[in-house]
Amino acid sequence: MFTGIIESIGKINSLIQKKGNLAIGVESTFTKSLKVGQSVAHNGVCLTVESKKGKIYFVTAVKETLLKTNLGSLIKGQAINLERCLKIGVRLDGHFVQGHIDTTASCKKIVAEKGSWLFTFEIRNAKSGEKKLLINKGSVCINGVALTVINPKAKSSTILFSVAIIPHTFKNTNFKNLRVSDKVNIEFDVLGKYIQQIISK
């Protein structure tokens, strides 16, 4: 379980294909404090620490994860958002995030405003239920960052929505590296998903 508050920006140190899976080496500021078996969110994707060496730790993304997230398009040296799992007894500053990606979206527009940035994303081939999970002022997690949904619009199988990025978030996440057409990981609000399932039954 995570909060969507990015703890550090890591750097991809190595990428090795292994029988359809991808072994990823990540350079991080908190590698020394990690223990093998712990969970870390990488662009919002929960992966297990398998080993570490110096400032580098290693995780594996399986084929299913590569198909449903943007981890398959990582390149060496790329910046990646990192968050260690939620520690009980501390303030929850974002919202409950599982690290289980629901879908991906592409960045359609970036507008620099006075003191903030407005990012617009598009989800294509959206499932009917997904259209109900993005509500105005509701929560969404993008590349592991807990954000507030602005003006979602659903048409046919496409969903458009925006988020506002404040200077602190822009500086301390890889949002500053995003460009139009880049793919991002999307996790819908887990509370909304449970409510939707209960109502559908």
Describe the model:
It is a single chain. The chain is 11% helix and 44% strand. With 201 residues, the protein is mainly beta. It has 2 domains: 8-84, Beta Barrel (Elongation Factor Tu (Ef-tu), domain 3); 103-200, Elongation Factor Tu (Ef-tu), domain 3 (Beta Barrel). The chain has a 7-stranded antiparallel beta sheet. It has a 7-stranded antiparallel beta sheet with strand order 11-10-14-8-9-13-12. Strand 10 (139-142) and strand 11 form a beta hairpin. The chain is globular and about 45 Å long. The mean pLDDT is 95.
Concise overview:
The chain is mainly beta. The chain is built from three helices and 14 strands.
What tags apply to this protein structure?
201 residues, mainly beta, Elongation Factor Tu (Ef-tu), domain 3, 2 domains, 7-stranded antiparallel β-sheet, globular
Give the averaged pLDDT, no decimals.
Answer: 95
- The level 1 CATH classification of the largest domain is Mainly Beta
Specify Rg, calculated over alpha carbons: 17 Å
Number of DSSP E strands: 14
Helix count from the secondary structure assignment = 3
Percent range for β-strand residues:
35-45%
Overall tally of domains:
2
Q: Terminal Cα separation, in Å?
A: 26 Å
Q: Unreliable runs, pLDDT <50, ≥5 residues?
A: none
